[in-house]
Amino acid sequence: MSLLHLAVLSPFLLALIVPVLYKLFRQIHTGWFVLLLPILLFSYFSRFIPLTKQGDVIRERADWIPSLGIHIDFYVDGLGLLFALLITGIGCLVIFYSIFYLSKEKEKLNQFYVFLLLFMGAMLGVVLSDNLIVLYSFWEFTSLSSFLLIGYWNERERSRYGAQKSLLITVLGGLCLLGGIILLSVMGNTFSIRELIAQSGQLMDQALFTPALLLVLLGAFTKSAQFPFHIWLPDAMEAPTPVSAYLHSATMVKAGIYLVARLSPVFAESGTWLWLVSLTGLITLFWGSFSAIKQTDLKGILAFSTVSQLGLIMSLLGLGAAALHYDSMGENIYLAATVAAVFHLINHATFKGSLFMVAGIIDHETGTRDIKRLGGLMQVMPITFTVAIIGAFSMAGLPPFNGFLSKEMFLASMVNVLELDIFNLDTWGMLFPVIAWVASVFTFIYSMIVVLKPFTGKLQLSLLERKPHEAPIGMLVSPIILASLVVIFGLFPNLLSTSIIKPAVAGIQPGFALDDFPVHIAIWHGFTPELWMTIGIIAVGLILYLFFQKRQKPLLLLPDHLSLNAVYDASLRELERSSSFVMKWLMTGSLRTYLLSIFSFFIVSLGFTIYWKNAFALDTGHFAPVGFYELLLAIVIVVAAIAILFAKSRLTSIIILGAAGYAISLFFVLLRAPDLALTQLVIETISVSLFLLCFFHLPLMASRKEERMSFKLNNAVISIGVGVIVTLIALSAHSNKLFDSISSYYLENAYKEAGGKNVVNVILVDFRGLDTMFEISVLSIAALGIFAMIKLRLTRRKAKS
Amino acid sequence: MELLLAIVIGILFMSATYLMLSKSILRIIIGTGLLSHGAHLLILTMGGLKAGSVPLLSDEAASYVDPLPQALILTAIVISFGVTSFLLVLAYRAYQELGTDDMEEMRGTKTNE
User: Fold this and answer.
1) Does A630 contact chain B (CB < 8 Å)?
2) Closest-CA residue of chain B to A630
3) I need a surface site. Which of A85, A585, A717, A735 has the fewest CB within 10 A?
4) What is the Cα–Cα distance from A654 to A644, expressed in whole angstroms?
């Protein structure tokens, strides 16, 4: 346990106290208390910047399950630190914003901040864990807290739908990730990420490598809303806007990006990885940006734009893997892709965070987010408009904002693909810059929609729910800070390059020395292809934007029943239908059906195992001789067991059962078990009297008609099967001795340790005394149940109804 | 001896299963009773039979039979008694409330209706 452990745990600890604070200080907005923690954490993590800048790492270990190699290892390197700073930094701004966004009178603030803190802690855990099992636990925790936050307004049907959808998809991916982690640990014999990276060369040749790669990527793609798993993100917009700004733009969806980046050194050597990551990213980029322009809800546009931007970062990470195949080159141009990915990650958090907050402000002040009803807000909300225009222009990739820089780097990386000659990229590589360019045009268009539709044009007050005015200053602080970061990073990009970006890139590409990374970022870099591409994007984008303006309905609408959402809904319905069908088929409510299936399963599974494992063995060598009395008793028991089947009256059955019981107690005498014989005699006597009491001495029961059991063939077959299997098991259990018995221990120690000569008694009351105590508790529970059943009379309420 | 017992156990299990598959609740309870007898003998047989004298420590005996199965069975006898008596009272009360001891007729009935 170290300070680092405490830092990651602190959100969870605070989450415990928040409800108390909420109850005690109803007058103060709970957010103020919560705000202190991310500020503290942010400053704590900032201290590590000088360390990671030199390439140092911080490791702290606490044991969790050491016997399985599971330790809570926290590991701060450049990559982890970048995410930790994003989580805590954006966390501060979002919580500050939420204080003004969520009213302390109307909202369940205690729940909201508990969920948010849980999320923050889980997210820190994901990005700082070195142990994959710990990482996975935190990973699922982020899914869970995200579910709670999306469903925060749980009285809304859409919120519940969105929450369920995100949970189903991300947890499904989480399970795949767990599978991948287990495969990795099977191959590398460790759960530690760094140890896996150290042996990445050997892992490649193993048969499990590709399955592990696919499963890990499934986990990352579902979390980061990559095509075709992106469908949960737009529905997650039902969450309160601070949550969307935090989880669904800056942090949680980037957990998948983090995972891909973190495990790049393990997998990146393989062509499957390069192709899969970069192509999925590109498709997502294209599909997200294309879908965004069809949306009319402001948050819907931002959701799809997030999907598309995540795709952009993903594709860059995929292409960065190409650097591994060209390590002999002096200036490795493919490393630039990784640099661009990290830089864009930061930029996206800043401009998308501010845009989400702007959308929240518009929603808060006008009561709608529908761009068809909004317009002309520029006059009433000038500050918000300024923030929006900075965010949107950065997203569109316009100078001098930070989005321009990373967009140029992205386009440059895509152009560089043309020079690749590995994994068939020389034939298909042309696709990359083309898709990237088209997607960028769409990106430009939706960025313009986001800022121009609500703020320019005519203000139609009649369409709005309330009269808009500028937001309170508290709500504006956070977006203004983010917008200024957009400008600062745009003008002075090298503020970040050596302190943050370089160490983070080193975490993704550990094979290269720190000085190899081309992190020098400049606004003006000559008339390069990427600059011409940007100019083309702006020109074509503007024309298309004006064209779309004219047409009310966007062209190229996919029919609803063909969309991925329809597939999701249909499969959910089908799942429900088939599971209820199976339930109805299995759970008939008839005891006989249940027993039939249990017994059939018993016969089939055990019979098959005996046959398959060749387990049946008959060792007649150790058989004890059969005496006359034993034979006699055995005949009595067999006759009784068969006669009971043909007994007509209840009384006869009970007496036969008693006879069998007494015969067995005599058997115990012969088999040298005097204690058993005594107990069995007593118990048998009581049982028979109880049976008689219940079924004979009650006139009500005795008057019932009695008849012989009718013969049923399938019952007989099942019964004979059970009998045969048990006989086989009895014989082979006697003949196969796999382990030495522990009985000799009791025989040797009964007198020495417990001072008793009756070994059976000593076992029961001394060695296994606790078991006997529980046995007595079972008997008392049964006795209580019996007492309750006799005393409790269910009153019939017919008179009332 | 073991072979003989194994067959006895098999027959006990067979009858028990057949009884438990019937409709009458009394037969089901009798079936569970027979089943526990079978299970007790099964545990005893697994441990080996008559391989020594009674497990009461003394100076004369050279070896003892396995005490562990006996301890297990002792527990099992008591528990199965608890289960049987619980089931008996349950059946009796169910009969009082519902007027039947047929499992098929009991199915899905609610006393409060």
Assistant:
1) yes
2) B1
3) A585
4) 9
